[in-house]
């Protein structure tokens, strides 16, 4: 039967427009930092007028908040009580993180340096969610590059039920060394890990060994 309910048609049309705008905004956020995006940019990507974006979301902040809520909706499918456990929420993008922290792929380093996050109070490897484990610089295995690698090994050991630390001390090797990148005098880890990065810096050469 033909749809003869004007209110229903209008509601579906508004929902389609909102979805178009949110999709366009998410696409732009994957390309540049939030502060570099204008409402007009989102409207152009969505193929509608900027006025329509303002009608649906009020302001740019309202639009960004709606994008954040949609991300939380998706995350909540896996962690149903996510919102109840949150005490603060501030969304950012990989481009935002790279701009302000000079880290690649949006990876910021560590958790807030608060007393409750120090030493034995740092997050444990195991969580209240079955099958979910934590690893990296923010866990109980402390900070720093070496400790982060060690912490990852401890997390893997927890998952596998093995003492990987002791296995390594006993001489175990878990990597095919022939597949590792050769480190030369001009090797740059940032460029190697993210060739497409817009960040460029002078190559840091290793000091020549003196006789």
Automatic annotation (TrEMBL):
<feature type="DNA-binding region" description="H-T-H motif">
    <location>
        <begin position="38"/>
        <end position="57"/>
    </location>
</feature>
<dbReference type="InterPro" id="IPR001647">
    <property type="entry name" value="HTH_TetR"/>
</dbReference>
<feature type="domain" description="HTH tetR-type">
    <location>
        <begin position="15"/>
        <end position="75"/>
    </location>
</feature>
<keyword id="KW-0238">DNA-binding</keyword>
<dbReference type="GO" id="GO:0000976">
    <property type="term" value="F:transcription cis-regulatory region binding"/>
</dbReference>
<keyword id="KW-0805">Transcription regulation</keyword>
<protein>
    <submittedName>
        <fullName>TetR family transcriptional regulator</fullName>
    </submittedName>
</protein>
<dbReference type="GO" id="GO:0003700">
    <property type="term" value="F:DNA-binding transcription factor activity"/>
</dbReference>
<dbReference type="Pfam" id="PF00440">
    <property type="entry name" value="TetR_N"/>
</dbReference>
<dbReference type="InterPro" id="IPR009057">
    <property type="entry name" value="Homeodomain-like_sf"/>
</dbReference>
<dbReference type="InterPro" id="IPR050109">
    <property type="entry name" value="HTH-type_TetR-like_transc_reg"/>
</dbReference>
<keyword id="KW-0804">Transcription</keyword>
